[in-house]
């Protein structure tokens, strides 16, 4: 009997602590003739510090592209960058707060980076200018990428949260929500990418890529 009561009490605590999923919709205003960039959505607790739950993630170099092109990870996570192409690659980022350069390496090799500070990191290859990726390092374990319809879901414990959406083409947008002990629908979020103008990025030395680097193999 005591064992059953203990198990029931533990179930009640777990049920009360987890409210999710919290779901919502993200609307994106774009420039005419363009599609929205993938957006990251994350939740920060307002009444307590967010727990640290770093993980291990992979951003593969394949077909002279980063796969996936957008990655969202909790702060403290380690991201591996394996090279699956027949050519050399050089992974780097000039983004604050932690620029990095993994150097040049060949097929079958992999290098990694541990992101110790939150930030939005644009990642490139110093040899191939068309290779770009966006890594969102967020100060919370509750993070997701909105789907093509702008829908997202987060499993959150009960409490108050600031929910933020961001893409590499828009200023972040936030809302605040109170989460109870059952599934909830958050107010809509909106991003404005209509003022974004694409420009050619520089290499890791701050110089233009040579014209030959843009030619297809």
Would you mind describing this structure in some detail?
The chain is mainly β. The protein has 2 domains: 21-50 and 141-196, Immunoglobulins (Immunoglobulin-like, Sandwich); 53-139, Cupredoxins -  blue copper proteins (Immunoglobulin-like). Helices cover 7% and strands 43% of the residues. It has 1 helix and 18 strands. The strands form 5 sheets. It has a 5-stranded mixed beta sheet with strand order 6-12-11-8-9, with no helix packed on it. Strands 1, 14, 17 and 18 form a 4-stranded mixed beta sheet that branches. It has a 4-stranded antiparallel beta sheet with strand order 13-2-15-16, with no helix packed on it. The longest helix is centred in the N-terminal third of the chain and has 16 residues, at 2-17. The radius of gyration is 20 Å and the shape is globular. Mean pLDDT is 91; it is low at 1-16.
- Provide the residue-averaged pLDDT: 91
CATH topology name of the largest domain, in short, is Immunoglobulin-like
Instruction: Work out the oligomeric state of the chains in this entry.
Output: single chain
- How does the major sheet shape up? 5 strands, mixed
Set down the secondary structure blueprint.
Blueprint: H1 2-17, E1 22-29, E2 40-45, E3 56-58, E4 60-61, E5 66-67, E6 70-74, E7 78-82, E8 89-93, E9 100-105, E10 110-114, E11 119-125, E12 132-138, E13 143-145, E14 151-154, E15 159-167, E16 170-179, E17 184-185, E18 189-192
């Amino acid at each position: 009997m005591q064992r059953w009561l203990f198990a029931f009490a533990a179930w009640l605590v777990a049920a009360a602590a987890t409210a999710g999923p919290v779901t919502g919709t993200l609307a994106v205003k774009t420039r005419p003739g363009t599609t929205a960039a993938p957006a990251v959505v994350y939740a920060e607790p307002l009444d307590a510090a967010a727990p640290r739950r770093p993980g291990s993630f992979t951003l593969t170099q394949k077909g002279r592209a980063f796969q996936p092109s957008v990655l969202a990870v909790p702060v403290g996570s380690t991201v591996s960058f394996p090279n699956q192409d027949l050519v050399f690659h050089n992974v780097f980022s000039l983004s604050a707060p932690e620029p990095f350069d993994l150097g040049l390496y060949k097929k079958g090799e992999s290098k990694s980076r541990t992101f110790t500070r939150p930030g939005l990191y644009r990642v490139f290859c110093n040899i191939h200018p068309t290779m770009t990726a966006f890594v969102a390092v967020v100060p919370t374990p509750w993070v997701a990428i909105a789907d093509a319809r702008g829908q997202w879901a987060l499993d959150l414990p009960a409490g108050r949260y600031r929910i933020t959406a961001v893409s590499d083409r828009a200023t972040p947008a936030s809302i605040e929500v109170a989460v109870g002990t059952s599934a909830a629908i958050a107010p809509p979020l909106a991003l404005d990418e209509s003022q974004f103008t694409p420009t050619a990025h520089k290499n890791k030395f701050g110089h233009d890529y040579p014209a030959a680097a843009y030619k297809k193999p």
